[in-house]
Write a structure and sequence with these properties.
Order of helices and strands of chain B: EEHEEEHHEEHEHHEHHEHEHHEHHHH
Distance between the termini of chain A: 22 Å
Largest sheet of chain B: 5 strands, parallel
Helix content of chain B: 25-40%
Order of helices and strands of chain A: EHEEEHEEEHEEEHEHEHEHHEHHHH
Number of strands of chain B: 12
Shape of chain A: globular
Radius of gyration of chain A: 20 Å
Structural class of chain A: alpha/beta
Largest interface: A-B, 21 and 26 residues
Number of strands of chain A: 14
Strand order of the largest sheet of chain A: 3-2-1-4-5-8-9
Number of helices of chain B: 15
Strand content of chain B: 5-15%
Number of helices of chain A: 12
Radius of gyration of chain B: 21 Å
Oligomer: heterodimer
Distance between the termini of chain B: 13 Å
Largest sheet of chain A: 7 strands, parallel
Structural class of chain B: alpha/beta
Chain lengths: 358, 341
């Protein structure tokens, strides 16, 4: 089976890491997977193709921006690839009712905005898959999509230069960071070494935030970081994420509230466990268990976050055993090899349904 | 025949498929693709293809043999470079030449270009832009009367309305040529984007198409102004004695015409035709020759100032030619004939 992905090309965000992994494992199965468009020096290991007709399926990956595909590309794809072979991966849960959390994070600003997305999806494809642990809409097919690469597990030979690291962009994360993480760090700051936040918009919101009406999404107070002597570093390309995480004893994963509510999974869930670090995840224990297995509860940051940070730094052996158990779970249930098989089954299943219906 | 035009609109750029846009009250908008016989895509840049869901609806709702593309900037060609002008601007829009070719071939069976001599065999000539004889400003007078009126004081000596995109080389030549006579001629004004300074994006991307020399403009006392709506162009040009007609080097190379040629002849001004003589004559007729400027720009302007009537006679005769051969009525007839062929 040959699959062509169409997505916005971003070197330090989105689904590019997953795509690189799908390409890697597809060779074992004799499948061809490519990214639509000409080759790009920023993505050396990514196969690219402009021959859309040569693929069995075209999967459009939509995140939180609707109109990233250029009209030129769309015109070619829509006229070359029959609708029955187009699939949408709704990575950010836009194909849902409006979910607005405490007037803060949300998938749509208004019902009109949502209807525009639904109309766009309806115009593009019949099939929508979501990387959700609990999809809300029966028309959506669940497909976690993102996965774990056991071979990517690194062992950092050199000593750690950072105690606590957080690798993610400041996109709807400030509330959790400012209300939960920073107060917890403040209480134990004297017992912590260097803390680093790596990613975009932790120093200031982008100049265009107001233009897209989303100032709240990028809200940040750099003074809080200064007060706690927290280092802010720029984003790293996708292929350096695991190595960057591996420079810290502990890595914290946060997720925007909307994603937690919708059970959406991202690359970060798995990259964290390929890194040579102790991952702690700002998830409820039940949520962590769903994806990481029973041992996942041990790494959930739900209450006494400061105590957990200190415990992880003081008892690394205990946490390494937990991480080992989780890696085994991820290898068994969430490897990219398995994910690719699930993707193929999903595509075939729907094709079979369509054939039966005919 | 019912035609549905598809293009992105901007008040200061050009004059329809899509949601009603309140800033274009004079235009009719529709999303009912099925009610039209033909969809005409008017394409300058990638954003002229509609976003989702509209593009998908158009492609689903109108068969390919009833879709037509008017390729206004010669995208549907091999990549061509003229000076630092290109038909494919990969640095700016991320699209290579093959993408334009594939997209056009995917969308429509017929591709038209506003040139008398398309380079590709699978392109037909259709000038698209046209002349509206009823829009001539103060056109009910003879050349002698126009010349007398023109000799009265005007706010500007020279006015150019258009964005600074691939125009600077030509503009600089004009400004340097007329500099010695600027006291007598009156002020020069440039209206449009990016005349004040080279924009940041051009610097960042290393694009020279928006070059400008603010010091030179200041030295020559040239006024720069922001863009004005298309509906105000004619009256604005009428406040100047002369209005140059420039085209991008690429357009001159491909023989592409733009709205500017026709629009300038509507205004109560003397057009300084600065497109190649052959192209100017082919479009405007032989009467345009006195208005075509070669290397003797200052000399020509001095001559017009001394004796304007022959030049106004040329303007009047060009207007007649344009009314006969390039009216929008004529253009629509040509388009329908092309579509029915």
């Amino acid at each position: 089976m040959n699959i062509l992905f169409v997505m916005e090309r971003r070197v330090n965000a989105g689904s590019i890491q997953a795509l690189a992994n799908y390409m890697r494992v597809s060779k074992e199965f004799g499948y061809a997977i490519a990214l639509y468009g000409p080759p790009d020096p920023r993505f050396r290991e990514i196969e690219c193709s402009i021959d859309a007709a040569a693929f069995d399926y075209v999967i459009f990956i939509f995140e939180s921006k609707l109109n990233w595909p250029s009209g030129l590309q769309l015109a070619h794809l829509l006229t070359t690839v029959p609708r029955s072979r187009r699939v949408i991966l709704d990575a950010d849960g836009m194909f849902n009712p409006i979910v607005s959390l405490d007037g803060y994070d949300r998938n749509h600003a208004s019902e009109g905005d949502r209807q525009h997305w639904l109309a766009a999806y309806a115009a593009l494809a019949d099939r929508i898959v979501q990387p959700s642990l609990w999809p809300c809409d029966p028309r959506v097919q669940p497909l976690l999509f993102y996965g774990y690469d056991p071979a990517a597990c690194t062992r950092q030979a050199n000593g750690k230069r950072v105690d606590i690291m957080h690798v993610a962009h400041n996109w709807w994360r400030w509330r959790d960071v400012s209300e939960r993480l920073l107060p917890a760090m403040e209480r134990v700051r004297g017992d912590l070494g260097k803390i680093s936040f790596v990613g975009l918009w932790w120093d200031q919101p982008p100049a265009w935030a107001a233009d897209i009406g989303q100032q709240e999404a990028f809200c940040v107070d750099p003074g809080r970081f200064r007060d706690l002597q927290i280092e802010v570093r720029p984003a790293v390309p996708y292929r350096e994420v695991i190595a960057t995480m591996s420079t810290a004893r502990v890595n914290i994963m946060t997720q925007r509230p909307l994603f937690r509510r919708l059970g959406l999974v991202t690359s970060k869930y798995f990259e964290l466990f390929a890194a040579d670090t102790i991952p702690l995840v700002l998830l409820e224990p039940e949520h962590a268990e769903l994806i990481y297995g029973p041992a996942g509860r041990e790494l959930a940051l739900s209450d006494d976050i400061g105590g957990k940070l200190i415990d992880a730094l003081e008892h690394p052996k205990k946490y390494r055993d937990v991480v080992h158990a989780i890696r085994q779970h991820l290898t068994a249930y969430h490897s990219y090899k398995r994910r690719l098989q699930e993707l193929i089954v999903t595509l075939d299943h729907v094709d079979g349904q369509a054939a039966s219906a005919k | 025949m019912k035609l549905l035009f598809v293009s992105k609109l901007a008040r200061s750029a050009r004059a329809i498929f899509g949601e009603k846009q309140l800033d274009f009250p004079e235009l009719a908008f529709s999303l009912e693709v099925g009610e039209f016989d033909v969809a005409v895509f008017v394409v300058y840049m990638p954003s002229d293809f509609p976003d989702l869901p509209y593009l998908a609806r158009l492609l689903d709702g109108m068969p390919k043999d009833r879709r037509v593309i008017i390729d206004c900037t010669g995208r549907y060609n091999e990549t061509i470079r003229v000076e630092h002008d290109f038909n494919h601007l990969e640095k700016m829009d991320g699209h290579q030449g093959w993408e334009w070719i594939e997209a056009f071939q995917s969308v429509a069976d017929r591709i038209l270009q506003p040139t008398l001599a398309p380079r590709r065999d699978d392109v037909q000539s259709f000038l698209f832009h046209g002349y509206d004889p009823s829009g001539v400003a103060r056109g009910d007078v003879s050349a002698a009367q126009a010349a007398r009126r023109w000799s009265d004081t005007r706010r500007y000596g020279v006015a150019y309305v258009g964005h600074n995109w691939q125009r600077w080389t030509q503009m600089r030549c004009l400004l340097e040529a007329i500099a010695p006579m600027r006291e007598r001629l009156g002020m020069t004004t440039l209206v449009g984007w990016d005349w004040k300074r080279r924009p940041d994006w051009a610097v960042e991307l290393g694009i020279k198409g928006a070059d400008v020399d603010p010091e030179l403009l200041e030295r020559f006392g040239v006024e720069t102004r922001d863009p004005i709506p298309f509906s105000e162009v004619r009256s604005f040009l009428g406040a100047a004695r002369f209005s140059p007609i420039f085209q991008r080097p690429l357009f001159n190379e491909l023989g592409l015409v733009s709205n500017r040629i026709f629009e300038t002849f509507l205004a109560d001004t003397v057009p300084l035709v600065m497109v190649p003589d052959a192209l100017a004559t082919a479009i405007c007729g032989p009467a345009v020759r006195p208005l075509v400027c070669g290397t003797d720009i200052a000399e020509r302007l001095e001559e017009v100032l001394r004796n304007p009537e022959p030049y106004w006679d040329a303007v009047v005769r060009v207007r007649e030619h344009l009314a006969t051969h390039h009216s929008y009525r004529q253009r629509l007839t040509e388009l329908v004939a092309l579509l029915e062929r």
